[in-house]
Amino acid sequence: MREFINKITTTEKIDGIVTLALEHRIKSRLKTQLDSGEEVGIFMQRGNILEDGDYIATNDGFVVKVVAAAELLSSIYSDDSLLLARACYHLGNRHVELQITKKSVHYRHDHVLDEMINSVGLKVISELMPFHPEKGAYSSHHSNNGHHH
Fold first, then answer.
1. Alpha-carbon distance 132 to 144, whole Å?
2. What is the pLDDT of residues 15-51, one digit of tens each?
3. pTM of structure
4. Annotated domain spans of the chain
């Protein structure tokens, strides 16, 4: 089994692709499969999050590109920045990871949170798309919504 231990910034060749959801991109140790089906191990330094478009390599120079997998997200689209700010406030109070743009907010699909957002006057839709949440002020990700200070 190939073991990927290095994150690299540039490469002249790509030997494969690994498509991972956020919950797997934040793990420092992971047994998974390349898109080709080959089983591999990923062993990154703790705190090193794999982002869409990153390259990881084995010691012998086998390089794969990381692709963010599509996940079921709840999405809010609005031209009203105040309403979007309110949505972020309420979701942030519940320690929900958010992907924020100028006209949208996205979070892991949750029907209870969707109802809360509907009650503040915004429409929520479910869609499949890669999830790239904000890293936060402390630049750490926690899939269990834990705190790190």
1. 16
2. 999 999 999 999 999 999 999 999 999 999 888 889 9
3. 0.81
4. 2-68, 70-130
